[in-house]
Design a protein that fits this description.
mainly alpha; 21 helices; 497 residues
């Protein structure tokens, strides 16, 4: 089991690699999402929003304490799995991960009041799980590099089953916080342990100083980008959860409750990428790295096809989520979660922009243009640090939602500019038709809201079908050739050797 059961990626057609990996990723993620969707409905009705807010705040703090961790996935992806490369990556990631415990312990003793009451035990549990992730990081990276999404997919399915039973059982027994903790921790524990058992890689004392210096240079670039990412994607959560002030907006309360609404809206906002386009996002870095190894022309073709598919999937799913937010929240999570719907709409540009920014970020990493990526993230971080505090002070969670929307647009423009300079192509034209279709359907359904059926289920179905009709018509009229190309690529990938 130590070697892949198929030829290495360099000896296989890229379409077959991409299709097999995408289908396995899609199946496992949709299975995970399906059970998780039901689980979310149950937990949201059993557990008060305050508990979700408490876990969200602890997650942000644990992430900040783990600021020193070097994440060296790219070092493995850009290697031929040489022993000194893998050993050095394992050593550096684990040593840097231990720094978080030292910092958290010192702060807990010297300044415990910096974190909200009740969050310190959660913070340390999350840090322990983070250490386990670093211990199992090398096997996971190797599996991803080999495009072994079949293995990772089976682990995800098993995680889905265990992760469905355990949290709900704890919640039914009244252990609300442990239920949410297990819901958050089980995927990292099971997938990490499973990848380690499959790859069967063990660290040795084989490394050299040259490799350490090279990975430290790479680690510094990625670490600085990751630190900017913590600011970009978590500073808003920290402000909403800790910068408490009576909120002037009548549909939100103050304190930990709005953080519960905000964090849930933020997580739902990531679903178009994590769920609708999850099969693309999960393999994009591996696919771009393999495309870069085969030549710049192949990489350009891969990037254009991936971005085209991503644009249609993201903009369609985001439009459906926007127009059905009230109905879906009320029906699935319950009326007490309805305040998250306007927050979701206010951060809609984040919902749309984040997947495209992530796609460009993975391309820059595959091209080893880490500095370009760091520059784009610095632009976003500067904006959110300047704009988010006054926005939260005056408008609370609603202000944070607007800021992350604007930040996403700024980051996307910066990333597209860097990609066009590196690759010599621009993806802006790819976005135009699906974006116009999304704007048309959102505008039309906003005007037709009074005429929608009063039954919430029926209203959600009607709105979804109208979205599908508009996007389908736009695809057939304006993008038929691109759709036929995508279909041919899919058929080529499904052919047997």
């Amino acid at each position: 089991m130590t070697a892949p059961a198929f030829p290495p990626p360099s000896q296989q057609p890229l379409a077959r690699l991409a299709t097999r990996s995408a289908l396995w990723t899609g199946f496992s993620q949709y299975f995970f999402f399906g059970l998780g969707f039901i689980k979310t409905i149950i937990l949201s009705r059993l557990v008060e929003p305050e508990y979700f807010g408490l876990l969200a705040v602890a997650t942000v703090w644990s992430s900040y304490f783990a600021f020193g961790r070097l994440e060296l996935r790219l070092a493995v992806f850009n290697s031929a799995e040489e022993p000194d490369v893998l050993n050095t990556q394992f050593l550096l990631e684990n040593l840097s991960s231990l720094l978080g415990f030292i910092v958290a312990g010192a702060v807990a003793v010297l300044w415990p009041a910096i974190a909200p009451p009740g969050t310190w035990p959660l913070i340390f549990v999350l840090l322990i799980v983070g250490l386990f992730e670093t211990i199992t990081s090398t096997p996971r990276y190797v599996a991803e590099k080999r495009l072994r999404q079949d293995v990772l997919g089976r682990l995800t399915v098993f995680t889905s089953l265990v992760g469905f039973v355990v949290p709900i059982g704890l919640a039914l027994g009244g252990a609300f916080l442990p239920a949410l903790m297990m819901d958050a921790l089980l995927p990292s524990l099971i997938v990490g342990a499973g990848a380690a058992l499959f790859i069967r890689w063990r660290p040795t004392l084989l490394w050299d100083r040259t490799q350490i210096r090279e990975q430290l240079r790479l680690g510094w670039t990625l670490w600085s980008s990751g630190l900017l990412g913590k600011i970009t994607f978590q500073f808003d959560d920290w402000l909403v959860g800790n910068f408490q002030r009576p909120n002037p907006l009548p549909w939100l309360a103050a304190g930990i409750v709005p953080e519960g609404y905000y964090s849930r809206a933020y997580n739902v906002g990531k679903m178009p990428m994590d769920v609708a386009a999850g099969m693309i996002g999960s393999i994009a870095l591996s696919l771009y790295a393999e495309g870069a190894a085969r030549g710049r022309e192949i990489l350009r073709a891969v990037y254009q096809q991936v971005t085209w598919a991503l644009a249609w999937i993201i903009l369609f799913s985001s439009a459906v989520a926007f127009v059905t937010a009230d109905e879906v929240v009320t029906l699935l999570l319950g009326p007490r979660w309805l305040p998250m719907a306007p927050l979701f709409r206010l951060m809609f540009l984040f919902v749309v922009g984040r997947p495209f920014f992530q796609n460009n970020a993975q391309l820059l990493l595959a091209l080893r243009a880490e500095r370009d990526l760091r520059w784009t993230m610095a632009v976003q971080a500067i904006f959110i640090v300047l704009a988010c505090p006054p926005a939260v002070y005056f408008y609370g969670a609603a202000g944070a939602s607007v800021v992350v929307s604007v930040m996403s647009v700024i980051g996307l423009v910066a990333a597209e500019w860097r990609v066009s300079k590196q690759l010599g192509v621009s993806a802006w034209r790819v976005y135009v038709v699906p974006a116009l279709a999304g704007a048309a359907v959102i505008g039309t359904l906003s005007l037709l809201t009074p005429a929608m059926p009063q039954n919430l289920w029926l209203a959600a179905i009607v709105k979804s079908l109208l979205c599908a009709a508009v996007f389908g018509a736009a695809l057939l009229i304006f993008e038929r050739k691109s759709a036929q190309t995508a279909w041919r690529t899919l058929r080529q990938g499904l052919k047997r050797e």
